[in-house]
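Thread: "does anyone have the structure for this chain?"

Original post by V.I.:
We have the sequence but no experimental structure in hand. Need at least a predicted one for the grant figures.
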Amino acid sequence: MADKLRWGILGTGNIARQFVAGLTTSRRGIAAAVGSRQLQSAQAFAQIHQIPRAHGSYESLVADAQIDVVYISLPNSLHQDWTIRALSAGKHVLCEKPIGLNAAQAEEMFDAAEASGKSLMEAFMYRSHPQTLALVDAVASGEIGKLQLIRTSFCFHARKTAGNIRFVRPLGGGSLMDIGCYCISFARLFAGAEPTKIHAVATIHSSGVDDRAAGTLVFPSGILSTFACGLSLEADNSPYPCGTEGYIEVPTPWKPTTGNSRFIVARGTPPKMDNPQSTPAPPPREVREIPVHQDLYGLEADDFDETVLDGRAARISPEDSIGNMRVLDEMRRQIGLEF
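Reply from O.Q.:
Generated one for you, tokens below.
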């Protein structure tokens, strides 16, 4: 295999555009082909992004002998089918989150990857960013004491709902599947375990999917997690790992920036009776800057490139992806939105 992986892009939507733009910063990957259901769409995408080959069908793209990896940016309902087809065609696969419609699909997809001898990873791009890695280190090293609570939110107001795949139930839409999955992923990452208790509530849009949802998770260590997600409101979209000695604010967690990313280690002022004068008070707010010189999606691509080319363990393991889907399954069961 060449030193640089040749990527085939399956789909020409917004997330595909973002990924390909980031792929131009990759050290070990290049966009070699793009596939769409309409040749004209693929050709237009290829011209804009300077991709050598355009395919007028998904079948043609996954069969292309001149690509090594398929990036799947299709609606959630198509992830399983096209992942398995690409693996069967001898391609490695990076599949957008959530990896499937449910945990059973995810298990079948990873079984297919194992049988094919190819790599499959779920595309939670924030997990590859140095900001996230530094945040994990800060919590693990005890900078905020013992972790007790994880609060997260991910919301935005989708002004257009007609024709928006997020609002189409047969395509696997809804706020939990689209963005709540990030909050669940984040909580599980920092808790380092699977939850023992899961609870969810939601409002159901006229289209039949959840447009707002909130949930709680309880982990074996006693760590609690709360989150809110929504497609019809605005929120701070900042996670807060909270410990016995402080908490951390993360201004841009889900799409960290290039340049100097940052988070803030913060500490409250305890009542005097709980903080003897002889105990020096730590700084109330410390800003941590993390220099980043590569696009978020380029970092994600290089993470996967290292898995394929160097045999490094995938940043997001099969067990991690299946675990996330199990939580989503239970939450959707509770709100009456099963796939």
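V.I.: this helps a lot. Residues 275 and 281 are 8 Å apart (CA to CA).
O.Q.: and Residues 5-124 form a domain with the Rossmann fold fold (CATH 3.40.50.720).
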